[in-house]
Amino acid sequence: MQPKVLGVLILARNGDRTGFYQDPYTYEPSFTESTPLGAVQSFQLGSYLKSTYLDSSSPLHILDMPLDPSHPIPPSQVHVHAKAGGEGATIFDSSIALLQGMFPPTPRNKIALANGTIVTSPLGGYQYVPVEMIPDSSDTVLESWVDCAAFKKHITKVYNSEEFKEKAKEAKHFFGSVHDYVFGRPTTLENIWNIYDYLNTELVYNQTFAFRLPPTLIEQARALANYHEDAVFSDGEAGGIGNVAGRTILHPILRSLERIAFDDDPLRILLIETSYQPFISLFHMFDVLASRPDLAGIPDFASALSFELLRGPAPEFRDFVRVKFKNGTDDSEFQTLRVLGHEDETIPVTEFIYRLEHYAIPDTKQWNSACGNNRWFPFESTLSTATEQTSMMAVALGALSLFAFAMFAVMTFMKHTINAKRARRNEAMVQQCGVSVVYGYILLDLLTEIVMMLPFRTMLHS
C-alpha cells in the first residue's frame, strides 16, 4: 500500500548563471546574474515537482492539496525561502522560475468585484507565491559560512592538511596545462573553484573558447573542484564547523517537519532555494556517501533534495521521512537516499529529528557561538563585515563616554573637597576679617570654577 504524503520539503539549487567568483580563503561571494538557460532549468524542476507532488494522478500527491490542477494554491500551505546573498538576485530569480513551473497560471485565479466585474490575474491567471528573503548581511541560515571566524580557520586547516598538499602535487600537471586558458587567474588548488567556474561558463557561452579548450580539461577541473568543495564544506564530526552550511539550514527543515507532523499546521510545502554548499554538508551529515560516493562534490544546477513526510499504514499510522535527490536536469527523476545508516528507504520522523536536532544551529546567537564571533554588544549579532566599521565607531564612542563619566566623577569629588575647604576658610575669615571680605573670596571662587568647567562642558557637547 502506497503511504500518504503529508508534506514535502524541497531544497533546490539555483539554475545556471554568469561567472561567479568566490574568495578562496573567506568564500566572500561576488555578484553574478541569472541566465535564460538557468531560468529554463529551474522552470523544468518546478514542472517536475508539480507532476510528482501536485498532480491528482500522481501516487505521491500531497494530502489536502487541491486535486484540481487548475485550482489556485492556498498561500497558507506553501512557504518559500530564497537566499539573498552576495551573489545578488540570481537565486531569487531561480525561485521565481521554479514557482512558475510548479504553480503555473490558472484562469481560476480571479476575483469578483462589487460591481459584478470578474478580474483574472495577469498572464492568464499568474499565481504570485510569496518568497521570503533575508538581506545578505544578516542571513545566518543560507549564507552561514561567510563572516564565520571558525569557518575561516577550518578553510586554512584544510589547505594546510597533508592530504590537500598531496592532492595539489598530483594536480601539478593539470595546472600547467590549464594555465593558458584561464588568462592570469591563479592556477592553484586553493583557487580551483574559480578556475572550474570560469572554464565551465566560457565552455557554455563562448564558442571560440569551446573550440579551443583541449579535451578532458573541464572534466579534470570539475573533479578537482569537487574534491576542494567537498573538503571545505564538510567535517569529520557531524556537528563540526565545516558542516555549518548544513547545520543552519537543518533547523527550518526539522521545524517544518514538526509543524506538519505534530502541530496540525496547514503547511504542506516548504521550498528553500539556495546555493550548492548546504547540499555537500547535508550529504555528510546524513551519512549517504558510503553508498553514494558520486554525491561527494558540487551538485548540478537546478538540483533538488526532497524530504517527504509519509503517513504509514494502520493500525500505527506512524510518520516517516524519505529523502530523495535529483542531480540537475540530467536526472530524469528523484533517487531515494539511505540516510543515517538505515537500509530501508524511510526513517521514522521522530528518530530523524532526534538524531539531527542537536547539530542544528537555530538562531543568530548560537551561530555566533559556533563561529567564535566575539561581539561587544548584543545588537551586533546580525552585522556583517560591511558594517563592522560602524560597530568600531560605536565602541569608540562608548569608550569616550566612559572617559567623560570618569572625568566628571573626579571633578565632582574635587569640587566637593574644595568646597569643604572653602567653607572652613570662609568661616575662619568671617571671624577675622568680616563678611564683606568673604563675599569677595566667594565671587572669585565662582569665577575660577566657571573657567575650569568650560573645557569639560565643551567636550561633552562636541
TrEMBL record:
Pfam families: His_Phos_2. The keyword Transit peptide does not apply. The chain crosses the membrane at residues 392-414, 435-456. One of its GO terms (molecular function) is phosphatase activity. Keywords: Membrane, Transmembrane, Transmembrane helix. Belongs to the histidine acid phosphatase family. PANTHER family: ACID PHOSPHATASE-RELATED, PHOSPHOGLYCERATE MUTASE-LIKE PROTEIN. This is Phosphoglycerate mutase-like protein. It comes from Pisolithus microcarpus 441.
